[in-house]
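Key idea: predict the complex, not the pieces.
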Amino acid sequence: MINFTVGPVQSSDLVRSIGGEQVPYFRTAEFSKIMLENEELMKKFSGAEDEARVIFITGSGTASMEAVVANTLTEQDKVLIVNGGSFGQRFVQLCEIYGISYSEIKLDVGKALTEKHLQAYENQGFTAFMVNVHETSTGVHYDLHMISEFCKRNQMFLVVDAISSFLADEFDMKEFGVDVMITGSQKALACPPGISMIVLSVKAVERVESNRPKCMYLDLKSALKNGERGQTPFTPAVGILRQIHARLKEIESAGGVETEIKKIGILAEDFRNKIKELPFDIVSESMSNAVTPLHPLTASANDIFLTLKDEYGIWVCPNGGELKDAVFRVGHIGNLTTEDNDKLIDALKDMQKRGLI
Amino acid sequence: MINFTVGPVQSSDLVRSIGGEQVPYFRTAEFSKIMLENEELMKKFSGAEDEARVIFITGSGTASMEAVVANTLTEQDKVLIVNGGSFGQRFVQLCEIYGISYSEIKLDVGKALTEKHLQAYENQGFTAFMVNVHETSTGVHYDLHMISEFCKRNQMFLVVDAISSFLADEFDMKEFGVDVMITGSQKALACPPGISMIVLSVKAVERVESNRPKCMYLDLKSALKNGERGQTPFTPAVGILRQIHARLKEIESAGGVETEIKKIGILAEDFRNKIKELPFDIVSESMSNAVTPLHPLTASANDIFLTLKDEYGIWVCPNGGELKDAVFRVGHIGNLTTEDNDKLIDALKDMQKRGLI
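Result:
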């Protein structure tokens, strides 16, 4: 199978080979060293300040989204949320669960965030801003330059879910004044799913230290304390953390985060050029390099997903809910090449010949 | 390295080879089938009733312990907790966090639970009982026959953390009237850490359905609903779930849970016979097959752990906190043989010759 989904994605040979090894015992200096190096490289690649901290949660991206809401926000906050799809909606639900006041900017499917959307919220006493910089469900990448300026003008604490954007799109915590960045192991990091990561600015660490979240498993204070010595409060997904270590080092030695972003950008551009001759509309006004969201003009998106899976050995990423028949997505993250793009285009052309699209 | 810890433990070649494969996309009928088979085999091996349900949490055993407290208990409950070490203490903390009334039976290190401990709590209006049937931190395995009779007499909801005991010791939910069993991927299941499992009786499912937990990530109602079609609410550790599938099938085809328990029992007995000639006391009054807790009479437990790791290529399991120098543990779970036991005994004998123990 060739995997064009947005996670889990294809891993490198090195990452896979570590997956095939025995998992070592982890309450050791050797594993602590790996974790401290993971923290340093994550800080480097996210452009975090020197005193920033990184937490590795054994759980999905949602576990980290919830941990961030529960540990860095309080009932005294007034939060502005960009809600452009199912992941924006998740931040809304989390604020509701934790009793945090919020307003939401609701965007239609595929629509970009503009200055006009933000204007109404200037100088309205908002204390925090939450955005899924790449709304993975619809493939819309928001303008972080604009968001950053807005937050700086309004002294807002800026939380960025970059789960599917980290390593795929330009990003720099210091430059954009981002206080919290969230990502996951199975997106552009191209490791198996099971770990999500939270990078915390100094300001975010201070918020964590003065907060009193209820959940034990998602208690970031305890994670920060254990992390000082490269450990975790509970048994983590040790194997995946070792794979993350190898992959971060791989990115480092290949030229760093800029090289990785460029590589994904080239793959995305290649695919977007090749798909032009086929009966699809791109549904996003503003795309991430990570994924191309497509609306088929002549067939059901879910049928295309199933046919590619069952008859061509190719996974693209289906959508759920209301978009099930309208949209599917093609990912450009993970260990893919332009030759893989060709195979997908050939499969789609063959489906066209067969009258399936 | 030979790994005698209590998790992560050594995996079979088949489980490792799956760890080396690409992780497939999972919102598919193919992955759902794997998950539904995982549920059936977990029910079978835990002796659950036909209508029981199984939830797979991407997280450590603590994530599942917390999910069980938050989703199956309420402020109307009055819970009795056996607290014989750090995992018993964790149930106590969780009840405090969630405002659930409890009494605890505190046991000294290594001590068994007896009828005498339970007597004071007969007919006192307790509604639920929580026990780590194998208190992994000190290697004490409690008498589940006795606990079961007590709970039946007192109509108590019985929650058993069997994280390190499942597949290593005799266990049957129906026979013992257990309502909730918790276990993890990295113990006798011998897969990488990252997944914990909760088996829920019909009564436990009813408790979940009528409860309103605050946490989104640990919301078991949503997990049950998604599980009906073999899916999870959030991206799970797909790779580990596939390894669990292979391992459950492996146990099944090797003769089932009885064969696995017998195998671990033989390994434990072999080691306990061989260790007799060395300067160690066994600190537990009542052991699980999973682990032998040892108190060295002539040296620091932590020094022994470090020397075995650094000079002999062997991991045993260190203890933390107050027991750091007093106790280390030797596990009998995972892909180990009596020849591995011999290597550990030989290493210890060599350390004795060198005057290190």
